[in-house]
Amino acid sequence: MRLRPSGEAGPIASHFAGFARYQSESAWTWEHMALTRARPVAGDPGLCQRISATLAAVLRSPRDPEGLVIDVAGMRRRVAEENPRPSPWDLRNRPGGLIDLEFILQYLMLRHAASSPQILRRGTAEAIAALGEAGLLLPQAQHELGEAAALFRNVQAVLTLLGGGSQSTAVLAEPDAAALTACVGAVDFARLDADITAAAARVSSWYDRLVEQPARRAAQARGDDAR
User: Is the confidence at residue 38, as pLDDT, over 60?
Assistant: First the structure.
């Protein structure tokens, strides 16, 4: 409830016109990043169509590339500051984890959707494929990000079942490690651990190349503090 547009002082539910106006005039970049995953799931068919059309119009709006990449990188830094030492098994928050991967995709979709609307995809795998087909991800990036996403999602799903959703531990208990290894079809736990570390390193490299470095260059060109 705290996340509604007007905060705790605002209405619980927004009128459609207010929603559309907020998204087109007042929403922050991170809110539009979240909208790349949004979709109506139930309700009046006509209203669902209007919501889908509004979402598409917002996401396809032309954007300032430099301002966008600065915003995306800044949001990632703030997320990292709130969780400065994530567990290696926190595959969402760890460096090179799912947040870095998803931020790459969301940034590229927002930047290029005005000219290439076909890249807007809610699923991670579908977004990677669409960006690759549009020539907005190099083949190597498409391959490495796709492999990392599949590995992280599979491991995360098993960890959730094993730990009730908590991946805060730095070291898995031996029974959990054995179960995880078996469920994801790894040769052994050491190999799985090494594969995750290598995949995270590749995601980190692409994040640095596609988001962090461009953000720093853009901030320097504007005379802003990149941090």
Answer: yes
